Protein: Acyl-CoA synthetase (AMP-forming)/AMP-acid ligase II
Organism: Variovorax ginsengisoli
Amino acid sequence: MNLYLTQTLQRAVQLNPDATATLFRGRSRSYGELGQRVARLAGALHRLGMKRGDRVGMLALNTDRTLEYYMAVWWAGGVVNPVNTRWSANEMVHSLDDCGTAILFVDDQFLPLVDTLRTCSKALRTCIYMGEGRAPAGMADWETLLQDSEPVPDALRQGEDLAGVFYTGGTTGRPKGVMLSHSALALNSQISLLSAYFDERERLLQVAPLFHLAGLSFLLRGVVMGCTQVIVPGFTVDAVLEAIERDRITHLMAIPAMLQVLVDDPRTAAADLSSVRFVGYGASPITVPLLERAFAMFPQAEFVQGYGMTELSAGVSYLTSRYHTPEGRQLGKLASAGQALAGVDIRIGDGEGRELPRGEVGEIMVRSPCVMQGYWNLSEQTAAALRDGWMHTGDAGRMDAQGFVFIVDRFKDMIVSGGENVYCAEVEGALAGHPEVAAVAVIGVPSASWGESVHAVVVRRPGATADAEALMAHCRTLIAGYKCPRSIEFIEALPISGAGKVMKYKLREPHWAGQERRVG
Amino acid sequence: MNLYLTQTLQRAVQLNPDATATLFRGRSRSYGELGQRVARLAGALHRLGMKRGDRVGMLALNTDRTLEYYMAVWWAGGVVNPVNTRWSANEMVHSLDDCGTAILFVDDQFLPLVDTLRTCSKALRTCIYMGEGRAPAGMADWETLLQDSEPVPDALRQGEDLAGVFYTGGTTGRPKGVMLSHSALALNSQISLLSAYFDERERLLQVAPLFHLAGLSFLLRGVVMGCTQVIVPGFTVDAVLEAIERDRITHLMAIPAMLQVLVDDPRTAAADLSSVRFVGYGASPITVPLLERAFAMFPQAEFVQGYGMTELSAGVSYLTSRYHTPEGRQLGKLASAGQALAGVDIRIGDGEGRELPRGEVGEIMVRSPCVMQGYWNLSEQTAAALRDGWMHTGDAGRMDAQGFVFIVDRFKDMIVSGGENVYCAEVEGALAGHPEVAAVAVIGVPSASWGESVHAVVVRRPGATADAEALMAHCRTLIAGYKCPRSIEFIEALPISGAGKVMKYKLREPHWAGQERRVG
């Protein structure tokens, strides 16, 4: 037997069946109940025709049912395929069809999309309502499904069996499905806990989106340790402060954009945040001034930074708490993304697979038991990313004498805005489709709220009159809102290198001048 | 890429090359040096004709070179086969030949055995001297080998590749070779650390025999975390107290017999043991009075008990420190072997593979990614022990509502004496070979020094005159000293059940009456 994800639940049930597993809007369930509900929901999936290895989707804000969804799909022998809630309907249809997902769980928020998805998707067959009200006509209902189904035994998929397909932004304009195995996801929980340990007495706040691997990884670690998971639908200052005060949250995982909003909000200073003993952050750049304000906001908390990516089952290096303390900061590692987790090989490569001497900047390469199996149905992109067992991250970095990784820039032409990856090529493609646009380059510029925001530099055709507003509206018809440019600048000509490429660093320079920038 | 054991070394070198890896008799080596020495020693193994997958043996007391041996064999692509130093030459020859081990490292202590091993073993081809003096004629020398060899790249054996064959006592009179993979051993380190965490600032005392999996597991965890390993050749009160005081040992792993000797020795009370913050114990029964004396000996230390076996890559359940504190002892778990480690399934079975209700006594069954691949060349015994993915431990136990495992007795007819397994059938076979013995039953009886000691109940043939002394002498010619009976009792007839089996519990009763017994 190898590692398997439902084992984490089974063990939590064995060790403490009466402990609170989930808290959502006052609804509390123990691990014992969770285990029983998962076995029944898995039975329901079988009744709905789900076969071993079938993909099952979810389109919902965070709820306690999110954990039931994940565990039940695995228990039933299926493969999870959570949908990015920020996508346009077009993007959702693409990923469902690409992945051949026939069953989709949908909550109240996304009910209005169901007709469109059903009409446009060739793969989608069954939608299950996972919201809190009464199921709309033609849809099964979560609690009725559970009541009407018999529990089934764990299908015991394990090891290299595919556990999930997680879509991530694509450089060619289409999201790519990252295939992660049971072993990869389960092991990532364990090695992450070795660098940032917590135990079953903790209460974790699940506020980052749980369709995203950063959120899911934190959720799974909570199951491994049998913690109480306090789940809120999404990030608002009210939701976070309320949960911390009411449920005495001990552990928080946040992207820098959330920390920024929190420190900027006057209500934060008035709230009792003294229960918080751990703040994990990552997934986008953070500035040292923001970090310092976060230290002041949670003076009694340990801070841990993670660096990773979906292709690596989330984190591969951690900057542990000891480098965040006033004393530890003297060690000068605060600007780094930390050291490799146990079991993870990190190297700085020269682009040809050779390791560079310490201190030199090159591409960050990662080899680990948690690396993806590949991109779903994209063998060429898989071969380009995974060479000789090494994941070529596309990020530029250097490593110091103690193995601390300093991320210098992203080789991949990608913006991380509010924790989401935005691939410039996709935004450029949308803008370039406008009849009055002659040339375009999209870059990330610093944003107090989002880490980076999407900025477009546009060369208009002679005689064009379209303004920034018109181009933004054009983009919104084609791509998700978070990918659309927040600002547009018009220039006469793009700076082109001898090799014919746009020299984006020249476009970035004026925006980033004087900024202390960290890419986490 | 999957987990691989040399990765633990490579990461320790990357994260802190200058940290002290090993301390042995005043000789200190950094992780950077260790990495280089291992790559050279692996080169030497290649020069000596070792091929991928070849077994390489070691017959030595603990030294810093023990760690170099393990890592170099793995680095070179080989399989370790450490020899139990307490065996008779006969038993050693059997295991070397059974395993086809052609290369053997031998230290000063065991040099006198080399001629016999060479003469009697068909497999053994090359002996390498790993002692501290000058190599005897006809043997290669450790440091010369290193100097004369070029470092080679890591062979990168991984995952399910065989990492070691570890011989454990056999019920049929012959030790069985337990086959453990890279993944099993590496993962066992990680999950053990999740229940008893320590970090790279710790200094571990390696006093338990490193050929044994309990010792090796503690050693490997130290490499995973990049700790300083303080190694002593073997257990003496002097060696332990000296190391603790001189090297400020923080972490200690001991079998109960060692703790017993330590608490009984007057020098212990005079020693400064204040640096010790962690005491791990297990591998044999411990009494609560001994445990309480150990708490008093190390008042500032956390105590953790492990339960496991070679077939499971060492520990599968831990009783963590919090149940050892004065407050935690109120929870009533101190008599248990703790809860399953992360990733480990433990069940109490009815002997037919069905799980029993909580509280009922049955056979402890374990399923985990750390279970052995099987017994070397013993497919029948493997099939008997591993059924449907579950290791049938042969231990009797029950599980409470929180998953705590209480070990009641060992189904396998085995005595654990001083951390070593003694299978009764083997001792009975030796005694039965004496011409004056009519019938014999061997049991474990309580021993202050050894947890249990080997006790024989003998029915003599009519007119026989052989006394206990004579029978013990007879045994010593056939089996290892630690397997020989420490006491012999003569009776008229053995109590036989209706099924024709010796009712050993009736023989045990008078010895164990009034004893609070824990089997760890």
